[in-house]
Design brief:
Elements: E1 7-8, H1 11-20, E2 23-30, E3 33-40, E4 42-44, E5 47-52, H2 57-64, E6 67-79, E7 88-103, H3 106-119, H4 130-134, E8 137-151
Antiparallel strand pairs: 1-8, 2-3, 2-6, 4-5, 5-8, 6-7, 7-8
Length: 155
């Protein structure tokens, strides 16, 4: 990282960013072209869980190549300056890479669905209709490499 003073080296802080944000951008390779998708998710134990339709472009791509990059951020305050180049924004972000497993079994999808619901504010008494769970897959992004960066005061 070029700006080492902005690096977030503490894994607990990185996990906190992953646990608070709501959107994860997942980058894949579609043949020789990049393809990126913003997705809601849940984070737990070094894995990002995403619910998805079982068919579509991202599923087709992942079946060909399950190696991905990802980005998650939390945006803070806009910092206004007197000159255009003095403007900035406070943020915290993580980027990384890993592999995605596609989970299709009803039983293995329930815990990740709870993780996703918890991330979005519903942490208890989750009930899932079998027909709804059967109609989706869970994408489990196994994090292999991760870094964090921030700008501004986050104390």
């Amino acid at each position: 990282m070029r700006r080492t003073e902005r690096e977030i080296a503490d894994r607990k802080t990185i996990d906190g960013i992953l646990s608070k944000s709501l959107i994860c951008r997942v980058a894949m390779i579609d043949g020789d072209k990049p393809y990126i998708v913003p997705l809601n998710y849940g984070y737990s134990n070094n894995a990002i869980y995403i619910h998805s339709a079982p068919i579509g472009k991202k599923i087709d791509i992942l079946k060909q190549n399950n190696k991905v990059g990802f980005e998650v951020d939390i945006v803070g305050d806009l910092i206004k300056g007197n000159m255009s180049c003095d403007w900035s924004i406070n943020y915290r972000s993580v980027i990384g890479s890993g592999t995605i497993d596609i989970l299709t079994d009803f039983d293995e999808k329930q815990a990740p669905l709870d993780i996703i619901m918890n991330q979005h504010g519903k942490s208890q008494n989750n009930v899932y209709k079998k027909s709804n769970v059967d109609s989706i897959v869970i994408l489990k992004l196994n994090i292999e490499q991760i870094t964090g960066k921030q700008s501004g005061d986050w104390d």
